[in-house]
Amino acid sequence: MNKIQFDNIQETLYTKTLSNGLTVYILPKRGFSKTFVTFTTKYGSIDRMFEPRGKSEVVTVPDGIAHFLEHKMFEKEDGDVFQKFSVNGASANAFTSFTRTAYLFSATDKLYENTEVLLDFVQEPYFTEKTVEKEKGIIAQEITMYDDQPDWRLYFGTIENMFHEHPVKIDIAGTVESIQHITADHLYECYNTFYHPSNMVLFVVGAVDPDEMIPFIEKNQNGKKFEAPHTITREFPTEPDTVAIKDRTLTMDVTKPKLNVGMKCNHTNIEGEEMLIHELSSALVLDVLFGRSSTFYTEAYDEGLIDESFSYDFTMEKGFGFAMVASDTDQPEKLKEKILQTMKDMRTKGQISDEELDRLRKKKIGQFVRSLNSPEFIANQFTRYTFNKMNLFDVVPTLEKLTMKDLQNAFQSIADEGGHSVYTILPSDQAQ
Amino acid sequence: MFNKVELQEGVSLYIRQSDQFKTINFSVKWKTCLDESKSAHRAVLANVLQDSNSRYKTQSELRKALDELYGTIIYTDAAKRGDTHMVSLYAECVNDEFVNGDGVVDQVLELLRAVIFEPNFVNGQFDESIVGREKRSVKERIRSLYDDKTRYAQKRMLELLRPNSPASASSNGTEQSIDALTSEQLLEAYNKMIQEDEIDIYVVGDIDINSITEKIQKLFPFQARPARKRMTPEQMTGKDVGKVKHIREKQEMKQGKLHIGFSTPITLQHPDFAKMQVTNGVFGGFAHSKLFMNVREKESMAYYVSSSFASHYGLVYVMAGIDANLEEKAVQLIQEQLDELRNGNVTELELEQTKALLSNGIKSAFDSPRGQIEVFDQFKELDEHFTAEKLIAGWEAVTKEEIQKMASNIKLEIIYLLSGKEALTDE
């Protein structure tokens, strides 16, 4: 067991990689009643072309399968796994993202019983044609629910605009049509390829004693048989730097138009420290350009171009990345121009002052320390960082040493006009 | 849990010293009796106060100052609870030791003082241009509810179930009442809030109780005020409308949003409150509950289906996202689950699971600074010495027979369906 102390944030992380390849992280938090545990596989919606375990040819699986598999993990021959968590007082859940599938629970009692339920249900798949068929109705309702959410449509529509080939453009849940093709055999094929312990991370944070928890997990894992770890071969299409669609409009039953400007990042084949620097710098650049103390924000808010729904964000995983700036607005054309003009001004004559960098650096450091109050943040983000070969606890030291050059590089990677795309949702009664 | 100091009559300070968190959290809550036009004024006021003040005259200046204080957060909101309208001012800053900062907490207290006592007045009035802008923002907030079909359907169901009553009132007032608001009225709302509202101030974090008490006493010179008026339980719950309503409305959308409203004589103050919480939990509060297990898992009819108990208003809601063509079947299934409870068909396992999850919920709620403040603020009205353990003991004592009795007290009042225009033909 390794023990790593982070003095600046007063946290201690315990870690061990077990003989089956599973990496376990434990972060005790003083004063907490609950323990939050996540069991995550590095497998998400973008992993749709891969060599299945034991085969040498790449297959393409139906869209939405990682998410479908996540749903189906909860059903076993002897019933629903939620039942077991509930009787132990644990609140359980799961989510599927572009790159990860996470199973989790939060409990203030019976930590070991719940940890065992978590480990066992994720490591004992049970899929039959009958249970797979049954799930299609539930997931169809989930997809329909998202279809009615304008903010989700805005977000995903912008991603679809930006990407030509990359599977990030495919909705995580798939479509009502695509999930009809999913079979139990598909689920086993995906499970066997991606749910090997060596492709997974277990994170325990909150009320926990590492000296007892690590041996407990180890004992559970040693009681099961796994095949030898193997390297997973995934295939991704080549993605150009330019966007697929420059501008698109959708009509929905909303009161006010919604606008999203997507900016595709052209520097994404990175990981580790380089990625950490790039993503922190990109977030800082967006703060400079669009943050609440920026000129853009002040003017746009005063002019009534944006309202309380205004947001901006930077997303990055190995192989794809993008910034988004979005708001409900009565004047989508004007807002679009203003956002793109802000990018252009920075491109042509823009400068960031040292004072600005220092101020926003301070803000980001505080924001990060504040988020360490949340066990959910720590477990989810730490896992994401690990899968990208970064360490969450390097954030503060990295922020401290960011330079103007880093910010310039980050800006350059989203600055090209060819990488910008606009998505608008118009109210049905305003559309012609 | 909290150390209480009564600063003045009607002004209380609650402090919890704890090293659990890396931040210091402040919350100041102004409470008054719920009233629609007052809500509108106070919602705009909350926005105006967080925009700027006499020290930081623009939002940008204020935000820059907060960035310098290691990303300290300051924001306000307007909310309702039972018969109460609440304006809250929150602040959260990083504990000095994590950022080599010095005196961040003191500076945040100074800033809070400016937000509360030193508004951005021009000639003794709030700045017209700021007021106009924030009126627009709050109006847009109200309007945008329409875009979120689940929240919109819930609002419609409540309006139909309890019109002109606290249960359906918006904490932001109405668009009309915001339009009608003048700067003079806003100033009056401000003065009343500062001088007449009941005020609760919360501090959670690794601080020294005595020194923070002294500082707050000095910086926040609130005057004494008499106890505020409260509604009677009948005013709060509103009246049963008699015949069951069945209402369908349509918009351009795909899913059917089914919202069902029930009433119950059990409210927060009622001695059977804990029993009704457990009953709701068995019915539809969790993933092991009857609604989830039957409507979702057995019949595959919904992705989400749950019930909740609005204890202030004596209401129980069920909401589900369904195929609108299957409305009748869904309603029947939901009613069958309630009938199961009424017939006493509750297993020991369901009871045990529900109690375990209620207990987990309340204990977990204390694992965030905001959770500690909000949960305590809600329950202290019942019992100033409230603890999670007392609530848990209340749930533990609930029996199957009591659930049966509680379920018989839950009365169907409205079935509301919001669905797409093509989805079904009217009956």
What do you see in this structure?
With 432 residues, chain A is of the alpha+beta class. Chain A folds into two domains: 221 residues, 2-Layer Sandwich (Cytochrome Bc1 Complex, Chain A, domain 1); 181 residues, 2-Layer Sandwich (Cytochrome Bc1 Complex, Chain A, domain 1), CATH 3.30.830. Chain A is built from 14 helices and 16 strands. In chain A, helix 1 crosses helix 6 and helix 8 crosses helix 14. Chain A is globular and about 65 Å long. The model of chain A has no long low-confidence stretch (mean pLDDT 97). Chain B has a six-stranded mixed sheet, sandwiched between helices. The C terminus of chain B is likely disordered. In chain B, a hairpin with a 2-residue loop joins strand 1 and strand 2. Chain B starts with a strand and ends in a 7-residue tail after the last strand. Chain B contains 16 helices and 13 strands. Chain B has two domains: 217 residues, Cytochrome Bc1 Complex, Chain A, domain 1; 181 residues, Metalloenzyme, LuxS/M16 peptidase-like (Cytochrome Bc1 Complex, Chain A, domain 1), CATH 3.30.830.10. At the A-B interface, helix 2, helix 4, helix 9 and helix 11 of A face helix 2, strand 5, helix 4, helix 11 and helix 13 of B.
**According to CATH, what is the class of the largest domain in chain B?**
Alpha Beta
Counting DSSP E segments of at least 2 residues, the number of strands of chain B comes to 13
Largest sheet of chain A, order of strands side by side? Answer: 1-2-3-11-4-10-9
Radius of gyration of chain B: 23 Å
User: How many domains would you count in the coordinates of chain A?
Assistant: 2
CATH topology value of the largest domain in chain B? Cytochrome Bc1 Complex, Chain A, domain 1
Question: Average pLDDT across residues of chain A?
Answer: 97
CATH architecture of the largest domain in chain B: 2-Layer Sandwich
Low-confidence stretches of chain B: 423-427
Under the CATH scheme, which architecture of the largest domain in chain A would be assigned?
2-Layer Sandwich
Question: Quaternary status of these chains?
Answer: heterodimer
Instruction: Give the helix tally of chain A.
Output: 14
